[in-house]
Specification:
Strand content: 5-15%
Order of helices and strands: HHHHEHEHEHEEHEHEHEHEEHEE
Radius of gyration: 25 Å
CATH class of the largest domain: Alpha Beta
Distance between the termini: 70 Å
Helix content: 40-55%
CATH superfamily of the largest domain: Response regulator
Shape: elongated
Strand order of the largest sheet: 2-1-3-4-5-11
Length: 335
Amino acid sequence: MVDGRRAPTLKEIAQRAGVHVSTASRVLRQTEPADGWSASALRVREVADELGYQRNLWAASLRTRRTTTIGVVMTRLTDGVVATTYRGIEQAASRAGYSVLLSSPPDEPEAQRRAIELLVGRQVDGLLLSGLHRPGREFIESLRVGNLPLLALTRHAEAGLPFVGGDDLRGGTLAAGHLLDRGYTDLAVIAGPDHATTATDRLAGFRAETTRAGVPLPDNRVVTSTFEVDGGTAAGRVLLDSPDRPRAIFAVSDTIAVGVLGVARDLGLRVPEDLALIGYNDIPIAAQLPVPLSTVRSPAREIGEVAVRGLLDLTAGREVDSHRLPVELVVRGST
């Protein structure tokens, strides 16, 4: 019988489960196969749970030269969409038997550089980078990370790294197509920051669709902003507090759109009678606003999950392609 005052050994687990010790070792160090556990593997895991077995990750890392830890550099973690992506990362990493070391620096390249160097010093097996600034190639090439696998998520930063994110070009196209289908031709865009490819791709998709339709989008109808509510408020005042205001606005994030709604309220504008508005991401509050917000839904959690799988493929020496995950138009009262 296993002594309750000490951790069980692999030999004891193997004997109790009726398998060879090498089988017990293999089952307890691998993640669940795609076709599920065999009956004998399930028995090994049940016995390990009964006896309170915990794998010695430190000893394993000495043997394999891996820490079963991935690093994540993720800016703007207080944003609900970013937080949802991080939950996807944690869930996928946990299922694969990995832990996550997170750093959430300010949305500035040098702050991100310091975060990356910190995580590299912790000997993570790979890095997920979500806040890269465009164009980004010089920044990536300047990093002292050796052969450490890197994968970009959410923002691709035009840096030549494998990338996982939503199809933001398609999302911008969907937003423009929806407004045009509703008969709106006097359009404007609150475009977010020009260092973020999430913002620039959404604007590019929107422009491509209006150009295809022969509808002008003058430069003075495209206003940069932060991604936050106050960014939408400031940009909304620029566009709306004048006699020559647009009839419809595409905001490249729902939080920007919330700021625009506040400006419209203050100016006595009715949505959608005086102003149509469409956002991006489909945050939970979007459907609960006094006028529910039309938006483009981005697969935030799935982005995190697919990014982890891609990074683990890179750590295993496999080639990884970039993935733009599908987005979806959600039509509500604001248009």
